[in-house]
Write a structure and sequence with these properties.
The chain is an alpha+beta fold. The chain is built from 14 helices and eight strands. The two termini are 36 Å apart. Bound molecules: glutamine.
Length: 428
């Protein structure tokens, strides 16, 4: 994985990058890929994704602060699930940005993923942000109508059209064709959309005007939280300690942290510490919190079910014009070439992640890849990256992400399972 979960390409690791085993021609033939054609597994949980994609295990745990489960899953052609914030205990997970950190799950098929999720989803007093039992019960009540729709109370034809009555919104703001690397990424996604429609789902265009701002907001908030979370690695209580030189006091901390953290982590810690400083706080941290709130409200407004976390609790009644899920591409491209993502190429020593002054293309694209996964992270919503097929251009996997209202995790997985079943029949 990328050090402390900071990265999107898995090149910020002391142990070297994780290579993508998917290959342009299928996993069993991935050895045919030459060194120049090697692609990254994606980050930060690229090791988990590569292990699942290569068949070393059926299910792997991952972490997801801003897309680290979904992006590698998309690049490696497997499922990557970020559950609603608070449903899976974070006890034992090394903190990156606590208000965003979640435990993710990866698998090649929906059923093992669902079983792993169900067995791990419970209140845990050891995680102070674990969703309490009453929030889980409230989510069950709020999503009852959706569950009934999925259970096919609507009668005849349910077998042939298992998504009848389900509404899916496609947000134009984070589906701009100009942002995607090439139309080849869109082709498998269009096929996926056609399958959804053939199963009875209705698609509509929705707006998320603040979503593009999520990228800058996320990098300010995540870096700020990381700077306070990682303050404990001072070599006194925790972590690596540099050798002490005679007469040296203050420099020991600096040398300890310079030696112990990689370049990308140091860059984020400096950025985060700056964002929290008295002079910068109002312009960076506070603004980023406002953007986060806007994105949360815009997303919440789109859904047919109200948020189970809203206080005071709104009536569980469904909104007539709302959608049940949101769907968008998981990434703007297929897995990038390893050569274009090496720390040298990604300009680790350059300016801040989201700085407009950062003109080096490889450097910026490493962060821009997160754009699509960030709204669900900032709003704490469940999001599943599903393999949509292979790019018609380069043959590498393309993923599509389904996002639900908070607590609609089982329903997101249910939709994926039905699509998976339909596609298995199509391929027979
Ligand atoms: N790529 C994002 C980052 O570097 C997300 C990482 C994550 O989800 N852990 O912060």
């Amino acid at each position: 994985m990328d050090e402390f979960g900071m990265g999107s390409a898995n090149v910020h690791s002391h142990f070297g990058p994780v290579l993508n085993p998917a290959g342009p021609v299928g996993i069993d033939q991935s050895l045919a890929v030459s060194a120049e054609e090697q692609r990254v597994a994606g980050g930060s949980s690229g090791g988990s994704a590569a292990a699942v994609a290569a068949g070393l295990c059926d299910v792997a745990l991952a972490s997801d602060t801003g897309g680290s489960t979904r992006l590698p899953a998309s690049y490696c052609g497997i499922l990557g699930f970020k559950p609603s914030y608070g449903l899976l205990s974070r006890h034992g997970l090394v903190a990156y940005a606590s208000s965003l950190d979640t435990v993710g799950i990866m698998a090649r098929e929906v059923e093992p993923l669902r079983r792993a999720f169900v067995s791990a989803s419970a209140y845990d007093s050891k995680d102070p942000t674990s969703a309490p039992t009453f929030a889980r019960t409230r989510a069950d009540e709020v999503h009852l109508a959706l569950r009934e729709r999925l259970a096919g109370r609507e009668g005849a034809g349910v077998r042939e059209r298992p998504l009848q009555g389900v509404r899916i919104g496609v947000p134009a703001d984070i589906f701009p064709t100009s942002l995607l690397s090439s139309s080849s990424v869109l082709d498998p996604i269009r096929t996926f959309l056609r399958t959804l429609v053939s199963l009875g789902a209705s698609l509509s265009s929705v707006r998320l005007p603040s979503a593009p701002l999520g990228l800058s907001a996320y990098y300010v908030l995540a870096s700020a939280e990381a700077s306070s979370n990682l303050a404990r690695y001072d070599g006194v209580q925790f972590g690596h300690r540099a050798e002490e030189k005679v007469g040296e006091k203050e420099q020991l901390y600096a040398r300890t942290r310079t030696e112990g953290f990689g370049k990308e982590v140091r860059k984020r810690l400096l950025l985060g510490t700056f964002a929290l400083s008295a002079d910068a706080f109002d312009n960076y941290y506070l603004q980023a919190q406002r953007v986060r709130r806007l994105i949360q409200l815009e997303l919440d407004d789109l859904f047919r079910s109200p948020s189970p976390l809203a206080t005071p609790a709104p009536p569980a009644a469904q909104r007539h014009d709302g959608v049940d899920f949101i769907l968008h591409p998981s990434a703007m491209s297929t897995a990038p070439l390893l050569a274009s993502c090496s720390p040298a190429a990604s300009g680790s020593t350059s300016t801040s992640p989201a700085s407009p002054a950062d003109t080096e293309p490889a450097s910026r694209s490493a962060y821009v890849q997160d754009l699509l996964s960030l709204p669900a992270s900032l709003a704490g919503l469940p999001a599943l990256s599903i393999p949509a097929g292979r790019s018609t251009d380069d043959g590498w996997p393309v993923g599509v992400t389904l996002v639900g209202q908070w607590g609609a995790d089982s329903e997101v997985l249910e939709v994926a399972q039905r699509v998976e079943a339909a596609r298995a029949v199509e391929q027979q």
